[in-house]
Amino acid sequence: MARKINKSDCVGCGTCQRVCIVGCITQEDDRKRVINESACVDCGACQLACPKKCIFPN
């Protein structure tokens, strides 16, 4: 099961992207992050690191 970002709460800080061990988080045009669910290994590092707590299991 992959993680998902609640984009309405995401502030675009990039913390989740920096801690992702497989590099499956990218930045969109609005600076918000998105997780490539097929590449996510569900380690949970991004969820733990997110200061806004807007990442959750999908």
From TrEMBL:
Any single Pfam family the record assigns to this protein: Fer4_7
InterPro entries per record: 4Fe4S_Fe-S-bd (IPR017896), 4Fe4S_Fe_S_CS (IPR017900)
Key words of the record: Iron, Iron-sulfur, Metal-binding
Domain 4Fe-4S ferredoxin-type: 1-30, 31-58
Any one Gene Ontology molecular-function term assigned to this protein's record: iron-sulfur cluster binding
Keyword Iron: yes
Protein name (database record): 4Fe-4S dicluster domain-containing protein
Species this chain originates from: Clostridium chromiireducens
Lineage of source species: Bacteria, Bacillati, Bacillota, Clostridia, Eubacteriales
